[in-house]
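Hello forum,

I keep getting stuck at the same step: I have a sequence, I want structure tokens, and every attempt I make locally crashes halfway through. Rather than fight my setup again tonight, could one of you with a working pipeline run this one for me? It's a single chain of 83 residues.
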Amino acid sequence: MPRVRKEEEAAGRKDFESILRRLEEIVETLQKGDRGLEESLALFEEGVTLSREGHAILDRAEASVQTLTESGETVDGVKGGSR
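Reply #2:
Ran it on my machine without issues. Output:
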């Protein structure tokens, strides 16, 4: 498991895939429209929080890819051009 993921899990953060799964569950639940206002608002708040966490993970991943490509390395750590 990559070091970053271990650090995120140790800090109580969720991985990107689990965030997406939970967001899908929230959307499905809210689309049914069978929950009360209080529960719907709580689910919406959870969704907003998860969305922000997911965006932060994507931003870090994008920065890592950009750093690697600017340093002349590909994502798999190989220097130089094509394979």
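Helices lie at 3-10, 16-32, 37-70. If your local run keeps crashing, start a new thread with the error log.
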